[in-house]
Amino acid sequence: MNSQPAPPRVLAIDDEPFQLELLARQWRSLGVADVQTCSKGRGALELIGADPTRFDLICCDLQMPDMDGIEFVRHLGSSAYAGKLVLISGEDLRILNTAERLAGSHKLGVLGSLPKPVTREQLQAVLAALVDALASTARPAVKTVAASSYGSAEIERAIVEGELVNFYQPQVEFMTGQLVGVEALVRWQHPRDGLVYPDQFIGIAEESGLMNRLTQVVIAGPRGALRQARAWQDAGLTLQMSVNVSMETLTDCDFPDHLEREAAAAGVAPSTLMLEVTESRMMKDSLVALDILTRLRLKRVGVSIDDFGTGHSTFTQLHEAPFSELKIDRSFVHGAWRDPALRAIVLPTLDIARRLRIPTVAEGVEDADDWHFFRLAGCEIAQGYFVGRPMPAAAIGVWASTWNERRGELLDDCVALMRVPQANQDGLARVQA
Ligand code: C2E
Ligand code: MG
Ligand code: MG
Asked: Which end of the chain, N or C, is less surrounded by CB atoms within 10 Å?
């Protein structure tokens, strides 16, 4: 990881010469010297085609007569560009948000969408996020491998050769800011391509029937979640360990007993485990899945409904299955404070979860506005880049000291801080040492 990233390079696209010039000036006034402007989407695509690594950020207007922003985003998504994107528009916020989501589904790194007129403060926030992304990203500067180019044999080899590693993303309590858990997120340390993200191999692993073996490595492998949980526990830090499981695992009736044995062997209480489930297929195979989920709950393993609100995870499932946690999908979290449509979905969801006494996690808390909104709305746990990115286990200690410095100012309720149990504070101190 770079400690001193190179200065960001920005490409601004807008058909309106005045707006374009204004935007370029705003960037320069924030100290971004390398700003290139382009009045047409097509021209911008040519520049990117010639050198996909030329820019770190593209700021694109949505309304352009030649090629509109949506079309531009579609082409950009199929190019080798791996930098970030910000969409700008004078349109209704919902159009802007939908455009942002479309860009996200084209696997573009969207830093946000901005209503016109763009303010200096908004650009400052984008710049901070960009600098942060450039400093912490381990992704290659070019999309080297298309999502479908890993074969099942290669993934199987990765499982066998121990090339899969878990990263851990912190989960903190909104009320106190205390670290209460982590989500294990698998990465592939590819010998040629570097760090490969799950969206590039989980789908193929699922299609090839490899998910049970992959899950086994993630949970109980030599560098798996259980051993890590035990190591933290030995250091005095008891954290909830969340792990994603796919449907294939929830059709394996031996899984609950198997997991119980693995947890016992590792010396980890089943109650500290949380299995995250997302699947539309859960409805289809619901009887077997329900059987397994219920037995897991009887063994005190937590079960979380992941990506809630996306259509895969619905109210019906919430009613039918014994979930002990609800994770609001990040597409409903970031920016909900300024988006009435998102709020109309999120607030009743929080209310229902409260009535069902199911704790909620807001996933995708990306900035202080998201933090304050969900904290005030009564959501229990925060997970997102604002708190911390997924990181190797060894980095949690350093993250925790930075977080401890930051969290004080995020809690208006000072008394809450005093309620933080001393045990975990001591544990953290030992992990950091
Ligand atoms: P998920 O379980 O919903 O995990 C959360 C994803 O959101 C992670 O992506 C995480 O890096 C990302 N994320 C967290 N905070 C933020 C934020 O503030 N902003 C944004 N834009 N993103 C944020 P990741 O690690 O790429 O994982 C993607 C998906 O891959 C996971 O979604 C999960 O469905 C799947 N996955 C990851 N590891 C495993 C695994 O071990 N087993 C299975 N079955 N699936 C896995
Ligand atoms: Mg998850
Ligand atoms: Mg999720």
From this structure: C
Output the average pLDDT for the chain: 87
- Which band of pLDDT confidence, cut at 50, 70 and 90, is reported for residue 416? very low
Which has more confidence, 65 or 344?
A: 344
Question: Using CA atoms, how far apart are residues 55 and 111, in angstroms rounded to an integer?
Answer: 14
Task: State whether the beta carbon of 371 lies less than 6 angstroms from ligand 1.
Answer: no
From the CA of 104, give the closest atom in ligand 1: 21
pLDDT of residue 280: 57
* Percent of the chain residues topping a pLDDT of 90: 64
Detail the DSSP E strand segments found in 149-272.
Answer: 164-173, 179-190, 194-196, 240-245
The reported pLDDT for the residue numbered 4 is 57
Calculate helix-pair angle for 152-161, 211-220, nearest 10 degrees: 20
Please report which confidence band the pLDDT of residue 296 belongs to, taking 50, 70 and 90 as the band edges.
very high
What H or E segment, with its residue span, contains residue 277?
strand 273-277
Higher-confidence residue of 145 and 221: namely: 221
142-150 mean pLDDT: 55
Complete domains list, the chain, with CATH: 9-136 (3.40.50.2300), 152-432 (3.20.20.450)
Listing DSSP states for 84-105 in one string gives EEEEEESS-HHHHHHHHHHHHH
Q: For residue 198, which atom of ligand 1 is closest to its CA?
A: 30
What DSSP string describes 5-18?
PPPPEEEEE-S-HH
Alpha carbon distance 236, 70 (integer Å)? 50
Q: Report the 10 Å Cβ neighbour count for 78.
A: 11
Q: Which residues are 382's β-sheet partners?
A: 172, 362
Whether 244 is in the pocket of ligand 1, judged by its Cβ within 6 Å, is: yes
For residue 139, pLDDT beyond 60 = no
pTM: 0.71
User: Distance, CA 276 to ligand 2 centroid (Å)?
Assistant: 5
Q: Give the SS3 label for residue 227.
A: helix
State the pairing for strand pair 179-190/194-196. antiparallel
Average pLDDT rounded to a whole number, residues 83-96: 85
What is the 185 CA–ligand 1 centroid distance (Å)?
Answer: 6
Contact yes or no for 279/317 (Cβ under 8 A): no
* pLDDT attached to residue 412: 65
Q: Is 395 helix (H, G, I), strand (E, B) or coil?
A: helix
**245 CB near ligand 1 (under 6 Å):** yes
Q: Is the CB–ligand 1 distance for residue 328 below 6 Å?
A: no
Q: Are strands 381-383 and 360-363 parallel, antiparallel or unpaired?
A: parallel
